[in-house]
Specification:
This protein is of the alpha/beta class and 536 residues long. The chain folds into 3 domains: 159 residues, Rossmann fold (3-Layer(aba) Sandwich); 156 residues, Rossmann fold (3-Layer(aba) Sandwich), CATH 3.40.50.1220; 167 residues, 3-Layer(aba) Sandwich (Rossmann fold), CATH 3.40.50.970. The chain has 21 helices and 18 strands. The strands form 3 sheets. A 6-stranded parallel beta sheet has the order 2-1-3-4-6-5, with helices on both faces. β3, α5 and β4 form a beta-alpha-beta unit. α4 crosses α17, α11 packs parallel to α13 and α15 crosses α21. Keywords: Thiamine pyrophosphate.
């Protein structure tokens, strides 16, 4: 057995079902991955392949790790942005880029993954000893899977791939481990939450990875406290629940801002509290409790008054027990809190309803979001977006009701991310409607990978909000992208009448249900107003 075959065996043993990437990498070229029963999927460019692996990792709650492989040199250069995005969004992937032959690996100006990927990965190694395949891959999968999920990189020089092992190869897959919070800290924080007059729970992506959805809901209902999420954590708490405030982002619901102004105790769980234009704005004044798996996030950007380090499920479960032991029944707050949420929400929606139902042409993009919510059942849908306006239009108004039904992101705002995320989501959930929204900049960067959807029989729906510009810059963009969708092997339709948006979505969904990926190009206005309520 050579190194290439041994790596393929480790992928199989680690539960990898899909290997995404771009040739020339021996895992693809020799068929080694396919011989192990792993489906290989080649994209038009490396970055989209990383994005697909990213989606697999993020939507698997730690059960699967996304896997990616690519060519040495330009392949690793093209992949860098995708790995950096996965690092910023804490996505568990293992990347196996080829490197130059050992004799040339350190010769300038050859690109070295070992050197260059260290700042965008949780672990980064170069495999040079054939008999170290097992331990090297085990370290990579353990790093990606345990603690805070992030990419792990194993660069393999081209000639090493074809080197035989000197002994029989056996591989034991890695385990997933959880760490719990300090019990004394749990009781102290339970007291603080119970003494608060206006507590707000803020849930991040760590709730998804821990599968702590039930515990989060139980704590909220026991405290009778409202719940907001980060954009990455969106769908961790059902947004049709009467205690939901929605997701914090650059654009967010009015009720969330209302309660952030009023809160006296903010409890963040499974979140980093990273200061970013696409995250929660923590107001001055309230007591801040920060619970996260990664201790380096504590006091990183936001100073906390109390903290707990541990897995979100174990932490929330412990808090539920501690709070429940003291409450012993209703706190008689629920109706008042729900009424306040609903009043703030209705006032906000009244302000935005003219845009959501607008008959103007070009079509107001908020009308597109409204029609999506009318046509689609949220529980049957996984939806994501690209950077900029598609994110900002969608996030406040789309209500996610099922865990992991919304792939939110935003820290590094890489254009073209959403298409690969939707493709990866559809592979994992073929029974769901998997949808991505793109703008003009994003479709220009990764839009040709719509052909990957057609070639690989991955029937997603891509909605292109075409306003002929990118990020409000006065630089005209043009093109008939519906025709491009048809030319690439899918269904394409151009929509210019606002009354046709809903019917066009229905026609596109029918196409995806028959196995054909669909691309809707909707001609929209240059909308600039966002739902970003002032916290002052």
């Amino acid at each position: 057995m050579d190194v290439n075959q041994a790596i393929a065996r480790t992928l199989k043993e680690e539960g990898v079902e899909y290997l995404f990437g771009f040739p020339s990498n021996p895992l693809f070229d020799t068929g080694a991955a396919e011989e192990e029963g792993i489906r290989t999927i080649i994209t038009r460019q490396e970055r989209t392949a990383v994005h697909m692996a990213d989606a697999v990792g993020r939507l698997s709650s730690g059960e699967r790790v996304g896997a990616f492989a690519c060519q040495h040199g330009p392949g690793t250069e093209n992949s860098f942005g995708g790995v950096a995005q996965a690092y910023g969004e804490s996505a568990p992937i293992v990347a196996i880029p080829a490197g130059y032959d050992e004799a040339k690996t350190d010769v300038d100006p050859k690109f070295s993954s070992l050197v260059n990927y260290q700042h965008v990965s949780k672990s980064c190694e170069q495999l040079t000893n054939p008999d170290a395949v097992g331990e090297t891959m085990r370290r990579a999968f353990s790093a990606a899977r345990n603690g805070r999920p992030r990419p792990a990189v194993v660069e393999v020089p081209k000639d090493v791939f074809y080197t035989d092992l000197s002994e029989d190869f056996e591989y034991q897959p890695t385990s997933s481990n959880r760490s719990g919070p300090d019990p004394d800290g749990v009781d102290e924080i339970a007291d603080v939450l119970l003494e608060a007059e206006n507590p707000v729970i803020f849930a991040g992506q760590g709730v998804h990875y821990a599968e702590a959805w039930d515990e989060l809901r139980e704590l909220a209902e026991t405290l009778e406290a409202p719940v907001a999420t980060s954009l990455n954590g969106k769908s961790a708490f059902p947004e049709d629940h009467p205690l939901s405030l929605g997701a914090a982002s650059k654009s967010e619901p009015g009720q969330l801002a209302h309660f952030m102004r009023e809160t006296d105790v903010l409890f963040g769980v499974g979140c980093s509290f990273t200061e970013t234009a696409y995250g929660v704005t923590v107001p001055d004044g309230p007591t801040v409790i920060h619970s996260t798996l990664d201790s380096t996030d504590i006091d990183k950007d936001v100073e906390s008054d109390y903290s707990l380090v541990g897995d979100a499920k174990l932490t929330l479960d412990a808090l539920v027990d501690s709070v429940d032991a003291q409450v012993g029944g209703s706190r008689d707050r629920f109706d008042d809190v729900v009424s306040e949420i609903e009043d703030a929400r209705e006032a906000w929606l009244d302000e935005w309803r003219p845009k959501l139902t607008s008959d103007e042409t070009p079509i107001n993009p908020y009308r597109v979001i409204h029609e999506l919510t009318e046509v689609l059942d949220a529980e049957d849908t996984i939806i994501t977006h690209d950077a900029g306006n598609p994110r900002d239009f969608l996030a406040p108004f789309w209500e996610s009701t099922e865990p992991l039904s919304y792939i939110g992101w935003g820290k590094t705002t890489q254009l073209g991310y959403g298409l690969g995320l939707a493709l990866g989501a559809k592979l994992l959930h073929p029974d769901k409607h998997c949808i991505n929204l793109m703008g003009d900049g994003a479709i220009g960067m990764t839009g040709l990978d719509f052909e990957t959807a057609a070639r690989e029989d991955i029937p997603i729906l891509t909605i292109h909000l075409n306003n002929y510009e990118m990020a409000a810059y006065d630089t005209p963009f043009s093109g008939d992208f519906a025709d491009v969708g048809e030319a690439l092997g899918g269904y394409g339709e151009r929509v210019e009448d606002p009354d046709e948006v809903g019917p066009a979505i229905e026609r596109a969904i029918e196409q995806t249900e028959s196995g054909t990926p669909a691309l809707l190009e909707i001609i929209t206005s240059k909308e600039t107003e966002l739902s970003r309520p002032d916290l002052e």
